[in-house]
């Protein structure tokens, strides 16, 4: 952590803004910052990357994507001139890697062998930026954002060319932006909780109310997902590109033309990689148990985050605990009923968010999966279902990150009850 958590030279606000900056997090937009504000490269030799990415949906449908990438010239990221350009390249090439693997899955087999003109620069960029290989929630949602001079929002790159995909990405990002205030308020509360003066209780209480209010807004934004995303388009057209590579038992080969071509597993993109909800769990004292496998799930999702965000989640564990502070007020018989109620209310709003998320998952994953299985009589011929269904033959839908959906999502909700006080 850049500044020591007990450093009292600045007030909480300044201290927190400085700290967030070190992890590529913004006090205004939370984890949804640090992407790219450019959509083109200074050096015209990168044109093949831009042209292929902007034409991605057409190249997929005309079945020319793979041959186009195979014939790319070798371009080195050393010619990229700024961090912004590196990030733009990461967004474009990451989408192209996933498209290369999963293009036209209904008719063609996946192709888990990324050719050198794409593999080599992409591996270098990923190492340089310390970001997940392939796509991740940051590259499809958090950073995949453009704002034109008329104030119209859009995405840098997409697989399907549909407005549904743009809506999916922008809505996911809006959930994150709506939660930025919850993040900063909870961080401030953790910092204030280290103090012992008599204003502390009132201050923590005020901040917990802000946490609850902001999380309520996350839910409002999440529920707007249905206003522009058709479940069939999401499930059948977009989701096949978002999946991890776990359906490919030997992983994905990145051809580098060196002696050994390395094999990798790609994590895909899922809201489970949202650092916001992991951060709030930590700051509010919600624990996910090892025995249930949920602690491992939470850890595994961090491999799908930019390194700064994952490091932030490690580092905030040492901050003073808001929950312990509230508990101590109860022990000291400080008339803490209102504080306890406010703390519980913040947890309850987070739980309500998770209730709404389960509804969203039902609408966009479970229902279309059920319809497909019913139409097929079983799921064996379901295009794109390899990553969505358990190899054991279980028909329980699995998430894009590959989890047994319901036991996981319900368990994450149950864990919130344990954190309540009183
Ligand atoms: C169409 C919209 C969405 C669908 C279908 C969906 C689906 C899923 C699925 C299947 C999982 C299980 C993990 C896995 O991928 O294996 C999951 C987990 C999760 N998703 Fe989403 N998701 C959606 C939108 C979002 C958004 C917008 C966010 C937040 C910005 C989000 C946050 C989370 C979180 C935090 C988890 C981890 C479980 C938890 O903490 O309760 N999801 N989601």
Automatic annotation (TrEMBL):
One of its GO terms (cellular component) is cytoplasm. One of its GO terms (biological process) is L-tryptophan catabolic process to kynurenine. Keywords: Heme, Iron, Metal-binding. It comes from Mycena venus. The keyword Iron applies. Residues 383-397 have a biased composition (Polar residues). Coiled coil: none annotated. Residues 372-404 are annotated as: Disordered. Heme b binds at residue 357. The keyword rRNA-binding does not apply. It comes from the Eukaryota. Belongs to the indoleamine 2,3-dioxygenase family. Residues 373-382 have a biased composition (Low complexity). The lineage of its organism: Eukaryota, Fungi, Dikarya, Basidiomycota, Agaricomycotina. InterPro entries: Indolamine_dOase, Trp/Indoleamine_2_3_dOase-like. GO terms for molecular function: heme binding; indoleamine 2,3-dioxygenase activity; metal ion binding. Gene3D superfamilies: 1.20.58.480. This is IDO-domain-containing protein. Transmembrane segments: none annotated.
